[in-house]
Amino acid sequence: MPTQAPSSPVLCSFASPTELCDALAHFIVKAQKEAVEKKGRFTVAISGGSLPKQLNALIGKPGVKWDKWQVFYADERVVPLDHPDSNHRLCMDELFSKVPIPADHIHTIDPSFADDLEELSDAYEKELIREFAQKDSARFPVFDLILLGLGPDGHTASLFPGHPLLTEDDRWVAYIEDSPKPPPKRITLTYPVINHAARIAFVASGAGKADTLQTVLDKPEEGLPASRVRPVHPGQLYWFVDDAAVSKVEYPRTSFKL
Ligand code: 6PG
């Protein structure tokens, strides 16, 4: 059977960051509901940057079943878990310390391997295998949702422009020791993992994103890392942006409905 081409990204724009965050929270709760009804759990990968704060409309929101969430990091900086640069710490501060999610449902890197990134990324891959392998028994894990940000250079997770990791097609988790954005040591989910997710949502807000977003959506042939996120069928890619971020983009908008 021929492989079906990825479907086109769905671009939803909102007048303000608050409206964006409210819609994102609705979208996440719907994704969670479907996943829990089907499999009794909700697997999510989360990025750093502004994203954890953009999830704050989930705090206290009815319908969020925190005990069903299994959280991984789309990328993580290799620093102690309580370090100010840690994405885990950021997510704890902004979200997870404020909601009843069981601590063992948040899957962190093991910083005791900080001197050996091969080992550290292997250990994180094993953590993913424990969660996914028997249950979904696929070549790559199928996250219910992956939440990504957009860097000013078009990077996403820790997949940076021109880096050899852009062509990694085997590993689930890769490491980088020379990130152009500090801190230099990081791990990241790879494209095969990201692109096998059931849903991927990018979140980008503010005029500072306008040029990069225009390139990512209107000139995907330039191959910026964010443009290379194209989930395999039947996965679907969504962009949650505000009007300031999308001001230069020609790509058609879709009105947000649940
Ligand atoms: C990092 C950052 C980075 C960030 C993007 C988007 O690991 O260095 O987390 O990847 O997610 O630059 O940032 P904003 O969401 O803050 O715009």
Total DSSP helices = 6
| CATH topology title | Rossmann fold
Order of helices and strands: EHEHEEHHEEEHEHE
Biggest sheet descriptor:
6 strands, parallel
Main sheet: strand order? 1-9-8-5-2-3
Top CATH class = Alpha Beta
Give the proportion of residues in helices: 25-40%
Strand content range? 15-25%
Distinct compounds present? 6-phosphogluconic acid
- Which CATH-level-2 architecture? 3-Layer(aba) Sandwich
Low-confidence stretches: none
Given helix and strand content, the structural type is alpha/beta
Round the Cα radius of gyration to an integer and report it: 17 Å
Average per-residue pLDDT, rounded, comes to 96
Shape: globular
Organism: Fibroporia radiculosa
GO molecular function, one term: 6-phosphogluconolactonase activity
Pathway: Carbohydrate degradation; pentose phosphate pathway; D-ribulose 5-phosphate from D-glucose 6-phosphate (oxidative stage): step 2/3
InterPro entries: 6-phosphogluconolactonase_DevB, 6PGL, Glc/Gal-6P_isomerase, NagB/RpiA_transferase-like
Question: Can you characterise this structure?
Answer:
This protein has a single domain, classed as Rossmann fold (3-Layer(aba) Sandwich). It contains six helices and nine strands. It has helices at 17-39, 51-54, 87-94, 117-136, 191-194, 210-218, and strands spanning 10-14, 42-46, 69-73, 75-77, 145-149, 173-176, 186-189, 199-204, 236-242. It is globular, with a radius of gyration of 17 Å. The mean pLDDT is 96. The structure holds 6-phosphogluconic acid. 6-phosphogluconic acid binds next to loops. Pathway: Carbohydrate degradation; pentose phosphate pathway; D-ribulose 5-phosphate from D-glucose 6-phosphate (oxidative stage): step 2/3. This is 6-phosphogluconolactonase. Its EC number is 3.1.1.31.
